[in-house]
Design brief:
Layout: E1 4-7, H1 14-22, E2 26-29, H2 31-45, H3 74-85, E3 89-92, H4 95-109, H5 118-129, E4 133-134, E5 137-139, H6 148-158, E6 163-165, E7 171-173, H7 174-181, H8 192-197, H9 201-231, H10 241-244, H11 250-262, H12 267-270, H13 284-287, H14 289-311, E8 319-320, E9 326-327, H15 335-363, H16 386-402, H17 424-454, H18 463-473, H19 486-498, H20 500-509
Parallel strand pairs: 1-2
Antiparallel strand pairs: 3-5, 4-6, 6-7, 8-9
Helix pairs in contact: 1-4, 3-6, 4-5, 4-9, 9-11, 9-14, 9-15, 9-17, 11-14, 14-15, 15-16, 15-17, 16-17, 17-19, 18-20
Length: 513
């Protein structure tokens, strides 16, 4: 990850967001961005004594937008906005989510359409650089008019109020954390409070991280699927490129290419080729793996395009235009992000469901072509991987529940002023849980398929898949008598989540598609 990101008027790309959210990358606001911030702020200042109502500058908010606020109360207006809107509840949201959200709000400010003071932008950069993370609660955003409660919790800290997670991971008051870091709290003025909370940054940050995670997991599941093919004495003929070119779905083609490469030079696949092999076709969960994983890859590509467009967007209301116009708009509505968050949850649930079927097939003596029941060392005395499949099935069932779209729901708010909301924040939160479950499903297939391959000894997996097994065996023992499985499952999860399984394979055959 880069040591420093220069944040200018072009904002951040997806890699930048990941680097800030998950790493120690520092942010420096460029002089060009500071000039743009000053320019937009000058426009807001020009309305200081105006008797003409300007939303967010001299009016209340939401359903209170018709109430004119006198000039001497406008600073208090911004403070009251943040304090009242920092109304979240529930568990504390992950640090990486909050860092991504803050970075994206700052990136929008640096575009020069928000009307904040330069020092307000600088305090966000300073908090990120000092790893001072506002405490944001699970519930409070409806995904419209911005991720209001989550972003308000961040703005509250900039004011020197509220709670934070400090650089040591401790929960402390914002005032103490800022003082220790030498950061002076900001005094918000006209329009600034609204500029800090009116955006889809929370759901977008979670989308960007989800895209990165799912990209790794979809490559990894090509590995575990091909291991299952070997464990079940399946064929690699169905993954030939010319067959998939007949249906030119990009994700499918790439997944099939991966599986073909992963199974190349496999002694297990070669062991049953020829006339003596009476099986005409493998089961769908083996044969159609590229079609299902490929569909998820295409969904991911669409989500990536949406995220890229959103990263280049101005999500502010009202927006301060270079012409001097301060204009209300609806760009804060989270529908574009919410829809793809839900779409991704649906796609990975389907891929996980197919993986569980491969695991079940490996454990069933009637369908595993010679493997012991449940891959047990001494069936009857030992239960082998029986309950690991139960765990995997429970995870898949949970993913199916999490695949129910959040974005089709809407509960009106703010006295019916905000009468249609996206629920994008909730779509993002459940996708994070779905990704965690997906990681665990893949980890269990890895354990089961690798064990099945090992039990085919002296036959071996392909060189690529053997490297995955070798990496797994550095943390998880191979076949043997029953033992406590939870630590081994968690170790496998860590290898999948970290990308170590994928890296081990790519060292042998190069980068997967």
């Amino acid at each position: 990850m880069p040591a420093e990101i220069l944040l200018g008027i072009n904002g951040l790309n997806q890699s930048d967001v990941i680097a800030i959210a998950r790493g120690n990358t520092k942010i420096t606001i460029t002089e060009e961005a500071l000039a743009a911030i000053r320019s937009s702020r000058a426009i807001i200042d020009s309305f200081a004594d105006s008797a003409t109502p300007v939303y967010g500058v001299s009016t209340g908010f939401g359903a209170l937008a018709r109430k004119f606020i006198d000039a001497d109360m406008r600073v208090q207006l911004q403070k009251s906005l943040i304090r009242s809107h920092a109304a979240g509840s529930g568990d504390i949201v992950e640090v990486e989510v909050v860092r991504a959200m803050m970075a994206l709000r700052l990136a929008t400010i640096c575009r020069g359409y928000s009307g904040v003071k330069p020092e307000t932008a600088q305090i966000y950069a300073s908090m990120l650089n000092a790893h001072i993370t506002p405490v944001v609660r699970e519930y409070g955003s409806l995904g419209c008019s911005g991720d209001l409660a989550p972003l308000s919790a961040c703005a509250l800290v900039a004011m020197g109020e509220g709670e934070v997670i400090d650089s040591q991971g401790k929960l402390v008051s914002a005032a103490i954390a800022l003082q220790q870091a030498g950061i002076k709290p900001v005094e918000l003025s006209s329009k600034e409070g609204l500029a800090l909370i009116n955006g889809t940054d929370g759901m977008l940050g979670q989308l960007v991280m989800a895209i990165a995670d799912i990209r790794t997991l979809l490559k990894t599941i090509d590995i575990t699927a091909s291991l299952s093919v070997e464990a079940l004495l399946g064929t690699d003929r169905v993954f030939q490129d010319h067959l998939h070119q007949l249906r030119p779905q990009v994700g499918q083609i790439n997944s099939a290419k991966n599986m073909s490469r992963l199974l190349a030079h496999s002694p297990l696949v070669a062991s049953h080729t020829g006339k003596e092999d009476t099986r005409v076709q493998d089961a769908y969960s083996l044969r159609c793996a590229p079609q299902v994983a490929g569909a998820a890859r295409d969904t991911l590509a669409h989500a990536t395009h949406v995220a890229d467009r959103e990263l280049s967007s101005i999500i502010d209301n009202p927006v301060v235009l270079p012409s001097g116009e301060v204009s209300s708009n609806g760009n804060f509505h989270g529908a574009p992000i919410a829809h793809v968050l839900d779409f991704l949850a649906i796609s990975i649930a389907d891929v996980a469901s197919m993986a569980e079927r491969r695991t079940d097939r490996c454990l069933d003596e009637h369908r595993s072509f010679g493997l012991t029941p449940f891959l047990a060392e001494n069936p009857g005395v030992d239960s082998g991987m029986m309950i690991a499949q139960y765990t995997q099935a429970g995870l898949v069932s949970e993913m199916k529940r999490l695949a129910v779209p959040a974005s089709v729901d809407s509960i009106p708010s703010s006295a019916m002023q905000e009468d249609h909301v996206s629920m994008g924040w909730h779509a993002a939160r459940k996708l994070r849980r779905a990704i965690d479950a997906f990681t665990r499903v893949i980890a269990i297939e890895l354990m089961v398929a690798a064990r099945g391959v090992d039990m085919r000894s002296p036959l071996k997996a392909s060189p690529a898949n053997s490297s995955a097994i070798e990496m797994l065996r550095s943390k998880v023992h191979g076949p043997g008598a029953d033992r406590w499985l939870t630590p081994e499952i968690e170790a496998s999860v860590a290898l999948v989540k970290s990308g170590e399984i994928l890296s081990a394979v790519e060292k042998v055959i190069g980068e997967l598609a």
